[in-house]
Amino acid sequence: IPMKQLKTWVILATTAAATFGINELMKVIFQRERPLVFFQIEQEGLSYPSGHAMVSVAFYLLVALMLAKAFSKLKWAAVILGVVSFLPGLSRLFMGVHYPSDIIMGWLLGLSAAIFWYRIWLRKGTESISGTNGLAAQP
What we know:
Elements: H1 3-30, H2 51-70, H3 75-84, H4 87-94, H5 100-122
Helix pairs in contact: 1-2, 1-5, 2-3, 2-4, 2-5, 4-5
């Protein structure tokens, strides 16, 4: 990884790892059991908040925000990626392995994490990493 892009990659990796860790900690604190088995799908572990909803929104929404900022021509793709980041949470709800409140809290926490790390990424010094907010230069 070129040094110019290192901060971006570190922030993305930290976002995924920290969000996963916070999710696991919250599950231990709340100890919420999963709903009854639906559609013959059994899921082990605790339910609140949804890790799939939380981590997918935190990571993919952050990537979408970074893309939109760094590549103005890719804003449409960033919007699509931002919307798609919420789909894993919906799939968990439709499979019956989470309550709606599990998904909503996962989304809210993921959104908070994405905004938090995006603001860190925007801090002074990040823009000068490669001239495009830490991502590859535009053609």
